[in-house]
Amino acid sequence: MKKLDKLILKAFAGPFLLTFAVVEFILLTQYMLKYMDDIIGKDLGFAVIGQLLFFFSVLMVPIALPLAVLLSSLMTYGTLGEHQELTAIKTSGISLTRILRPVLLVSLVLAVGAFWFNNTIVPKANLNAYSLLWDVRQQKLSLDIREGVFYNGIPGYTIKVNQKAGENGDLLKGVMIYDHTNTDGNSKVILADSGRMFMRFGGNIWGWSYSMASCIWSSPMFEIGQERASCAKLFRAT
Global pTM? Predict the structure, then answer.
């Protein structure tokens, strides 16, 4: 390899890696935004999110690679021309096609590698990505109900529990529920000594059941209480 080839390839390598990383990041961000509603609120671990990012980033390589080659080629020869290096090379009797040859050969090697990559790696990554995304979509919605703190994540309701128990934290003790579904303020309050969160219909419906509850309807003039042995509520997960 001649010094001219080393000079051009060295000037090409840096912009290529930089532009490839930037384009990959932009495309991956745009792609992940489509599935953000399926990911947020599922209490996924860093390992699952990392796998999704890795598989989707592999899918973005066939799109990012040509853009990176194009932009880095323009940056490489633009930089050489800005520093008068192209002028010096041409005045030494080297033709323009000879100057373009190193980047052209690298582009051909990348094209062959991209063909192999699209034919072998991308289908496997595509299968793994959407299989994992399907599992994530089927996972239940995580409700971040904390002990002693009012939770407003359920539309139309405000919940406060004194203690959480059970393996998955689905058993609640000392439950207080404000019902705002009628848009009339805190006129209906449900007090229960215990309750349980549950999931129905593949995670599309969340609900709770409670026992020994006291449902109170109040107004500025009077208050009415009604005792219930047990009760249940369902709401659609969003």
Answer: 0.59
**Other CB atoms within 10 A of residue 161 CB:** 25
* Cβ pair 96, 77 in contact under 8 A: no
Average pLDDT, the chain: 76
| Closest alpha carbon to 145 in 157, 134, 159 | 159
pLDDT tens for 150-175 read 877 677 778 888 887 776 666 778 88
Q: Are the beta carbons of 138 and 130 closer than 8 angstroms?
A: no
Domain boundaries, the chain: 3-138, 157-236
Contacts of 219 (CB under 8 A, 6+ apart): 187
How is residue 23 written in tokens? 């384009």
Q: Of 59, 51, 70, give the one whose Cα is nearest residue 31.
A: 59
215 close to 231: Cβ distance less than 8 angstroms = yes
* Cα–Cα dist 43/32, whole Å: 17
- Single out the residue of 175, 193, 185 nearest to residue 218, CA to CA: 185
